[in-house]
Amino acid sequence: MTSRLDKQIERLSELSAQADSKRTELRALLDLTREQTRPANLAKEAGNHLLDKGLDIVAKGRATARANPLMAIGAAMAAGAVLSRKPLFKLSKAAYDAVRHYIEELSCDQSVGDSSEGKENG
């Protein structure tokens, strides 16, 4: 009977050691999960993911540009026009105003010249 009791005690001791081991593994896993789900770490991971995606897009764009250089030039020009629309609008408005002012000055000079010619003829 003691041998049977000794075997049960030994088995219980083994099970207790296994439970302690599993408990330690679970705590380590919980600590790791807690660390990974901290907002700062989540933000860092999301930033890294976005950076990776951006670099992939740039690499694909380079490959496309090498394969189709004319299309790449057209896309770059379109993007440049979109990005510089405000400065281009200001520039075109300034040019329009300058031409309009020049035409007004010419018409004023002609009308002054016409009135002085009328006085000379009369």
In terms of topology, how is this protein built?
Layout: H1 2-36, H2 39-67, H3 69-83, H4 85-121
Helix pairs in contact: 2-3
Could you characterize what this model shows?
There is one protein chain. The chain has helices spanning 2-36, 39-67, 69-83, 85-121. It starts with a helix and ends with a helix. Helix content is 95%, strand content 0%. It is mostly helical and 122 residues long. It has a domain at 84-122.
The residue ranges in which pLDDT falls below 50 over 5 or more consecutive positions are none
The arrangement of helices and strands along the chain is HHHH
Oligomer status: single chain
**How would you classify the helix and strand content by structural class?**
mainly alpha
Share in β-strands? under 5%
Q: Supply Rg.
A: 41 Å
Mean pLDDT: 85
Instruction: Figure out the total of helices.
Output: 4
Structural shape: rod-shaped
Helix-residue proportion: over 70%
Number of strands: 0
Question: How many angstroms does the end-to-end distance come to?
Answer: 150 Å
Please describe the biggest sheet, giving its number of strands, its sense, and whether it closes into a barrel.
none
